[in-house]
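Inputs:
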Amino acid sequence: MNLFNVDENYQNPTIEGYYGDFGGAYIPEMLYSNVETLKKQYLQIMYDPIFQAEFQYLLKDYVGRPTPLFLAERLSKEIGATIYLKREDLCHTGAHKINNTVGQIILAQRLGKKKIIAETGAGQHGVATATVCALKGMECVIYMGEKDIERQAPNVARMKMLGATVIPAKSGSKTLKDATNEAIRAWINEPNETHYIIGSVVGPHPYPDMVARFQSVISEEIRKQLKDKTGSELPTHVLACVGGGSNAAGAFYHFLNEPTVQIVAVEAAGHGVHSGLSAATTQLGTPGILHGSKSIVMQTSDGQVVEPHSISAGLDYPGIGPLHAFLYESKRGIFLSATDEEALASAFHLSKIEGIIPALETAHAFSVLPKMNLKASDVVVVCLSGRGDKDLATYMEYL
Amino acid sequence: MSKLELVFKEKSKRILNVYCTAGYPSLDSTMKVMTSLQKNGADIIELGMPYSDPLADGEVIQVSSIKALANGMNIAVLFEQIQDMRKSITIPVILMGYMNPILQYGFENFCKKAKEVGVDGLILPDLPLFEFEQFYGKIITENNLDFIFLVTPETPDQRVKKLDSLSNGFLYAVSSSATTGKDKDFNVVAQYLQKLQAMQLKNPILVGFGIKDKATFDAATVHSQGAIIGSAYIQQLTKGGDIETTTSQFLNSVLGA
């Protein structure tokens, strides 16, 4: 079934939010009016010069952009190719998540909203949301799985210190999937005053496109910085880890229509892709609908969404953004995976040879470098999406 | 004339549609619950197909869904359980559920099978209008199933008319934008229902969300043809005890019999 015209331009979904067969807005009528308002207005608002002026100002002076593109010399030597690190870990709050929350908070103000809700897994998106809510004086409620609240205590404390209310999601598996369900429900119950800041390129259209556009600043900067450093805007490979896929969408965005650039997405294989404890969605999933869009979903043969496993809470999600599902299906991107163990090893290794402690999510991306058969002439950009402070408790177990 | 149309033709006021989760409280209680509902005054049965991530439902129905799934319920099992339902159930039966499990079952097969066992209509809250018009609506119509859209107080009038024109049997008016099982301010609901009444829609209106007892059922049915009760009934079933007794007590209390 291919009902929907595929735009040759990978960046842009159709007017109904489809990337190939994936995307759309599978939402109950109770959300229609909110989502429709967003759909009609997001592009107009986002590309309004006054909006852009405020957005760019905050990215620069508040978030700390542009983030450096750093030549990782020791890693390059070891791998036998030129490896650049896009330092999203140096963003305010420690990860790329804030690029999106800064954008959406200004957008929410434009829509006249008074209250912000968000879901969070590892807590990075929750912290980034609570941060911009504090900045703008907006009420902030964060939904977080009860299990994640236990395993990400420092981020819970940060959110509270920033003035947010953290509500434990107690339904289902008590992790990111259920926090997302609860946040969507809360939005259904208070649609008029509230804006829902989704943290990844998932959810009903226009969220995947909107979040990808806010995150696209990552690849926009990479192109400029690479040109300054190498004379060419284009690397041979761009690598990023994928849970829902927001840092990957941002890092890939301005390279999607450059056929010479190999797009590489790295999923979390948990204990091993086929171990039964994995979050490698493209390897294990089938087409399905989750959280308002059609994508690839980890599910049982009768369509119940299953609980994934990854050591990193940020990749512990049974779906993937519809853009990524399309990149996978169309073979525009290659999808690799790294296990918990490999990610841990990479986190320790990167810390020792480059002096950068990465987030566990990010560490997955580094694990595949030695397996890629890279050539000396290859120029690889790895999106270093977040820093490892939040994962210290896990890392300490292995010291 | 479809079974649903017939119900509204024979009884134009105080139609009671009761929701129950298939496979809840126990796997084999589906038919028992349906029989009790029919016996004790329900005019329509809305049979919920459990799903792991039911976005439009509140906690009570989600908990019942998770239990039903744990009990072993799925679409194939459900069709087996209700394959002979028309030997005993004469009132209309509507299947309510989410798109994902149906897509995995196969949408066309699902519609065929539903018709075969005697299902009258479908409520699929996360099937969007665009996809309905592009693809799925045709399959539903070809299988002679009624499709019921939801409308809310935030649905623009033009869209209400459109959703009404594509619905058959009745139109499901959500009493306010909220998930199931939440309390409502019924003055606001009344105003909304009066507005819908004045729109002269093709279909009768059944009001859902927030209907839990005689007072709310009475209030909801002043300006509509009837109402849908879900969470409040599931709550009664959750208490345990004999299904027939629970159902008869609850429905009598709602209908004031």
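The domain at 13-255 of chain B is CATH 3.20.20.70 (TIM Barrel). Flag for discussion at group meeting.
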